[in-house]
Design a protein that fits this description.
Structural class: alpha/beta
Distance between the termini: 47 Å
Helix content: 40-55%
Number of strands: 11
Order of helices and strands: HEHEHEHEEHEHHEHEHHEEHHEHH
Strand order of the largest sheet: 2-1-3-10-4-11
Radius of gyration: 20 Å
């Protein structure tokens, strides 16, 4: 089956963009949303924002919720989606493979810029970080989506790769799941440990339900990563410039000001865990590119692979050169 058709059927999206002109023949704008938790909870929080976007743009806006980050990337690649909220790692892939570009970023409502990847265990289980790193194949471990920054890239870069640990051979079982599933699995004793992030845990805390409170009370953090940048919003480069301007005007004006309407909009943004969006570009992805290159370099050195080591060193040098240039010319 044609790969584009297969993706469209899987995602429940129109087939109009498959192998056709740069602009799909459809009336609605498709906004993809990473659903690191359940689609039901994401849809409840995002629907008012999507409805406001449609009203501001004067055209229908369809939300596509994907817990599989690859589906979000492929959706943009095959022009089945037009813009979306990505993680840093999946956003980087959208830029590389799907003709995307970063145009905005979220802003942590806590006032702290960024979030942390974490590893959680069931409270009072006796599972410590040392026990996890023992790699005796007795523990069941939960990883995130392979394209998840906090669920996979950060723990691999900062915890496992520097110790030459392959989770596949370290643990009894390794299962990839979204953040919400990992939280509930550890809390319920189905997993001994799992990756997660502070933003996902904060999002669950905001629900303020008995289930949310009990779940968080049953887990504890045994490892934290360095701070990770907030999530990027990416649109397709080939969108009509006039449409891009309308989208930008909506995004950067939403929730801004001291009017009752702005206050209503900020309440909606609170539900999706951001303050008003701010402008950004592809340089927002430099930290995750540095993480990626660092992880690749560590793994190559662990394998004593000279060719891969040289390639990773060149990648890392290029990223650092770009960061230095940005610091001089912000």
């Amino acid at each position: 089956m044609n790969r584009c058709i297969a993706f469209a059927l899987m995602a429940g999206l129109a087939l109009s963009g498959c192998g056709q002109s740069p602009e799909p023949d459809r009336k609605e704008l498709v906004f993809s949303i990473l659903s690191a938790e359940s689609q039901a909870s994401a849809e409840k929080d995002w629907t008012p924002f999507v409805e406001d976007m449609a009203k501001a743009l004067g055209q229908p806006v369809k939300a596509y919720y994907g817990s599989n980050y690859t589906a979000l990337i492929e959706g943009m690649r095959f022009k089945q989606t037009d813009l979306g909220w990505f993680t840093n790692q999946s956003g980087l892939e959208a830029v590389r493979r799907a003709n995307g570009e970063v145009f905005a970023r979220s802003v942590n409502p806590s006032g702290i810029d960024g979030y942390e990847a974490v590893i959680i265990v069931k409270k009072s289980s006796g599972v410590t970080l040392d026990r996890i790193l023992k790699c005796d194949k007795t523990l069941n471990f939960g990883m995130g989506d392979p394209k998840s920054t906090s669920g996979t890239l950060a723990p691999m870069t900062f915890l496992f790769a520097p110790r030459n640990i392959d989770p596949a051979t370290c643990f009894k079982n390794v299962r990839s799941a979204n953040h919400e599933t990992n939280l509930f699995s550890v809390s319920g004793g189905l997993q001994d440990a799992a990756t997660n992030n502070t933003a996902s845990m904060d999002r669950l805390r905001l629900l303020d339900t008995d289930l949310a409170r009990n779940t968080l009370a049953n887990v504890e953090i045994v490892w934290r990563s360095p701070r990770i940048p907030e999530d990027p919003l990416v649109w397709r480069k080939d969108l009509d410039p006039a449409l891009k301007k309308k989208i930008a005007d909506f995004m950067f004006g939403y929730g801004v000001g001291d009017t009752p309407e702005a206050a209503r909009q900020r309440a909606i943004l609170d539900k999706i865990q951001t303050k008003p969006f701010v402008a950004a570009n592809d340089t927002h992805l430099l930290p995750v590119r540095e993480m990626e290159a660092t992880g690749a370099l560590i793994e190559a050195r662990n394998r004593k692979d000279a060719t891969a080591t040289s390639k990773a060193e060149a990648m890392l040098a290029e990223v650092r050169k770009e960061r230095a240039a940005l610091a001089v010319n912000p």
